[in-house]
User: Fold this.
Amino acid sequence: MSWLVTGGAGYVGAHVVHALAATGAQVVVLDDLSTGDAGRLDALPAVPVVVGSVRDRGLVRRVLREHAVQGVVHLAAREQAEESGADPLTAWTENVEGLVALLEGCRAKGVSRFVLTSSTAVYGEPDTEPLTEEAPCRPLSPYGRTKLAGEWLLRDCAAAYGLAAVSLRLSDVAGAADPRLGDTSTAHLLPRVFTALDAGTPVVADPSVVRDHVHVADVVEAHLAAVRALEGDSPGGTYNVGTGRGTSVLDVLRVVAEVTGGDSTPELSGRRPEEPARVVPDVGRIGRELGWRARHDLHDVVASAWTAWRHSQPL
Assistant:
């Protein structure tokens, strides 16, 4: 089948493109390169890359038509919660208006399979565990609200137009399956920690925050499981993606010290308003229905991220 991967030059997107192309699927990338790393773009396999925005309706329809696209994996988004609080209009424009334009194109060109990369940010500050997909969604940031709105929109389109759709609510993604494809965004925990280590400055963080840190290679496998389900005529669904285990920032910093040999003792900071204290999703549904589970532990995550970080730094 032919799949369009939006945001395919980004951190998670580039990993998905590599894995999807390796299955024999025909893959085309659409990315505006606003947040992609140039080195990561150079490391993509030999697939067509179209530079442009998912909000460009004419471009989207042309790409879907010219590449005979049968399914979409939509990863393109503004995904920083703190940034979305400072500039909510950009977050809503990119994340929701972009999804509207993409779904309009899919409807016009008869594309009937769609994978949306969402986030556990939709839950906000959970008050119950296990945190299943039926838990109340009360996102704390504009980013989380745009992801929830995107899920609602996709669900409505699936019901109205016969679209088979999967929404994947990702936990905190880290690590690298290939050193060329590592995460370099200092909005994320590990790149921020590695930057501080390189500079010999303290890591500023709230060590008590608990998240589910999932290896990007496992996240890729979740996307492939969703693709296989849709190719097999599954109607789709909404799934949490993570290990099902929570680790505090302090736990992560301890593993960083083990892997790097550096001093990752944190300088204490307060938790940001858009940052929940604890988010650890239940991943039972995706295991039962799509046969997926995470296979990497926290040491794998940190070690692969550090290798990729060293690869990305100038000599």
Remarks:
- The chain has a mean pLDDT of 94.
- The two ends are 41 Å apart (CA to CA).
- The first strand starts at residue 2 and ends at 6.
- The CA atoms of residues 50 and 273 lie 37 Å apart.
